[in-house]
Amino acid sequence: MSVALVTGSAGLIGSEAARHFAGLGMHVVGLDNDMRKYFFGEDGSTAWSLVNLTSKLGDSYTHYDVDIRDRDVLKKIFERYGRDISLVIHTAAQPSHDWAAKEPFTDFDVNAVGTLNVLEYTRQHSPDAAFIFCSTNKVYGDTPNRLPLVEQETRYEIDANHQFANGITEDMTIDNSMHSIFGVSKVAADVAVQEYGRYFGMKTASFRGGTLTGPAHSAAELHGFLAYLMRCVMEGRTYNLFGYKGKMVRDAIHSHDVLTAFEAFFRSPRSGEVYNLGGGRFSNTSHLEAFAIAEKIAGKEAKVNYVEQARMGDHQWYVSDMAKFQAHYPDWQMTYNVPAILNEIYEANADKWM
Ligand SMILES: NC(=O)c1ccc[n+]([C@@H]2O[C@H](COP(=O)([O-])OP(=O)(O)OC[C@H]3O[C@@H](n4cnc5c(N)ncnc54)[C@H](O)[C@@H]3O)[C@@H](O)[C@H]2O)c1
């Protein structure tokens, strides 16, 4: 039996991972305690997603309602499956930039210490497993905001001659910038994952996500930008838009494309790697542009409350350069762009949100 252990298995990326690897014939062991509901309230709860998962995957899925901060229980799960675990996908996290400042201890315990817990038990019990960690572009702090940007009608853009014109590479420094409390806990985890590759020789990778999105997101105001934006347009809810005239740019990657990238790494893993992971030049949007696409799809006008003050440390322009990952895994291809992603979020949630 080959086991894929997925933390945060009811979340956006975790649930896609569970479906993906069960589909490849693996047994999936999922860990999730619906802590997203604690972070973001009822909107954020992933309970519905867990119900879908267990009913769809049947015997190929085993769920543990466990907190990754609980070392005793976590240890028992790793002891139980041991070397049958050939893949660990670690997605469980406090994922919001803004929420982290409310409870820095909780944020750091979940994101940094929780990651160390999962890493160390993998080393003790399943050392040959490929270990995939969902890091974030917030590890670069607000350094991207120092790039030379040009204001266009609907977005900011980088100077076309700049070294990052095709997107930000993994060479950008993660030092000397404002990260937000969330960025700090993710840097700690990102570096620990790299170190378990370098120091212990494990097959680890930190994937520094841009906007990871898809219909399985439990869209909440503080996390899940594209899904929440679509939800607001569909429900007629007011969207609070913070700063930069709504022209800030994000690159968005669909959870399906995230999982095909993870599968490529799993099939041919490397040690201590770091990859940027986003929509890149193929799939990016400003908030203003995303509203226009969402309005067209839903046939409804967006209600927007513009707030002058940008979120602290928020990126003004972030597009990932995917060249390093594509050079290591040339068969991998991105399939969804922003309109296709928004369309799918709309179709999948029409019953719930309209
Ligand atoms: N979605 C994005 O735009 C984005 C961007 C960059 C990085 N990431 C990272 O990718 C990962 C997955 O993101 P997502 O959007 O799927 O998040 P998500 O919130 O949808 O999923 C995370 C899941 O983890 C669970 N969880 C949280 N704390 C837990 C704990 N202590 N113990 C057990 N389970 C716990 C939650 O209940 C949730 O179901 C996160 O690490 C996040 O920081 C996400």
Q: How far do the termini sit from each other?
A: 43 Å
Mass-distribution shape = globular
Bound molecules: nicotinamide-adenine-dinucleotide
Mean pLDDT: 97
Strand order of the largest sheet: 3-2-1-4-5-8-12
Portion in helices:
40-55%
Structural class call reads alpha/beta
**Tally of contiguous helical segments:** 12
Number of strands: 14
Radius of gyration: 19 Å
Q: Main β-sheet, in a few words?
A: 7 strands, parallel
Please state roughly what percent of the residues sit in beta strands, choosing from under 5%, 5-15%, 15-25%, 25-35%, 35-45% or over 45%. 15-25%
Residue runs with pLDDT of under 50 for 5 or more positions: none
Taken in chain order, the helices and strands follow as EHEHHEHEHHEEEHEEHEEHEEHEHH
Features:
354 residues, alpha/beta, seven-stranded parallel beta sheet, three-stranded mixed beta sheet, binds nicotinamide-adenine-dinucleotide
Give a written overview of the molecule.
The chain has helices at 12-23, 35-40, 47-57, 71-81, 97-100, 104-125, 180-198, 225-235, 255-267, 287-298, 323-328, 338-353; strands at 3-7, 27-31, 61-64, 85-90, 130-136, 149-151, 156-158, 203-209, 211-213, 238-242, 249-254, 273-277, 284-286, 303-307. The strands form four sheets. The protein has a seven-stranded parallel beta sheet, sandwiched between helices. It has twelve helices and 14 strands. It is 40% helix and 19% strand. The model has no long low-confidence stretch (mean pLDDT 97). The longest helix has 22 residues, at 104-125. The radius of gyration is 19 Å and the shape is globular. By secondary structure, the protein is an alpha/beta fold. α4 (71-81) packs parallel to α6 and α10 crosses α12. It starts with a strand and ends with a helix. Bound molecules: nicotinamide-adenine-dinucleotide. Nicotinamide-adenine-dinucleotide binds next to α1, α2, α6, β5 and β9.
